[in-house]
Amino acid sequence: MDWINDRLHDLSNLGSAGWLAIAAWAALVLSIVVLIWANRQLTRNRQLATERVRPQVTMYMEPHASDWHVIELVVRNFGQTAAHDIRLDFVDHPTVAAYEDPRLDGPPEVAELDLPSELLYLAPGQEWRTVWDSAISRAELGGSIRDRFDGSLTYSDHARAGSKKKSGSWGKRTTFETKFRLDWGNLQPVQRIELMTTHDLAKREKQKLELLRSVLSYFHYASKETQPDVFRAEIDRMTKAVAEVQDRWRTRQFDETTELDFPWIQNGTAGRHSAPTR
To answer: What 8-state DSSP symbol labels residue 183?
Structure first.
């Protein structure tokens, strides 16, 4: 208590020079506090601005626009700047049923989906997509095929040094990573199949898949024919069958046929997914 009284006495007897010194120190401390606060605000605003304009790339699943049960795999840049050197990494690589399976006495073989390991460039709003599989066929396979796949996308906001896309700021090249999960169980088409197990539409979709398998089996054996006249007869028979189906389709005014491009079909080979050659 005596110490406090002594300090109050000293302050009451303090001259103008002393008060000026105290005011100068207080102003200095206040300036330091303001500078620290302003620096933190600037750093935070800079981080928010960088987060807002950086590339935002992710991978997700989406039903095809025309066939609800056909699922596409999409890689899209939702950010405001371009993404470079996008690398696709999976814990378990996505799989698909190989419908051109030489084993005709059992279910289709499960093979890895053919995907690129890297995409060079995605502009803002640009996407890359490919057809993955049919939810109906995967539902028929049940637990024999995996339905959940985890992975990550690694990409940069500038092209790597030495590439054709010049950046001019190699020192500021930043790499980002986006984790994703592809889950067939969470898709609306899968839930739709479960609700339509006994429905006529579900039965029709299954019959379409059976028809596809029959056509592929026919092509598998017919293409082994070596006699030209027999080969020509098979071609004429298929041409006639196609014409009959087209006439019946036009007569009934059925919905427009969905045409899908399968990137794994090479050299003009008909079919969907193929099992790897052993």
So the answer is: E
Backbone phi, then psi, for 2, in 5-degree steps? -65, -35
Closest to 58 (Cα-Cα) out of 241, 180, 173, 193 = 180
Using CB atoms within 10 A of its CB, is residue 52 exposed (0-12), middle (13-18) or buried (19+)?
A: exposed
Domains of the chain: total: 2
> Exposed, middle or buried, 59 (CB in 10 Å: 0-12/13-18/19+)?
buried
- DSSP of 49-114, one letter per residue? HHHHHS--EEEEEEE-SS-TTEEEEEEEE-SSS-EEEEEEEESS--EEEETT-S--SSSPEEEE--
Q: State which of 53, 74, 94 marks the end of a domain.
A: 53
Query: Does one domain contain both 89 and 41?
Result: no
* CA separation for the pair 247, 239 (Å, rounded): 12
Residues 19 and 132 in one domain: no
Verify that 62 and 105 share a domain, yes or no: yes
The pLDDT tens digits for 227-263 are: 888 888 888 888 888 888 888 877 765 444 444 555 5
Domain housing 6: 2-53
Of 31, 53, 75, which residue constitutes the final position of a domain?
A: 53
* Secondary structure letter of residue 196 according to DSSP: T
- Report the candidate in 218, 217, 206 with the shortest Cα–Cα distance to residue 135: 206
Low-confidence ranges of the chain (pLDDT < 50): 166-170, 254-259, 264-265, 268-272, 275, 278
Same domain, 172 and 99: yes
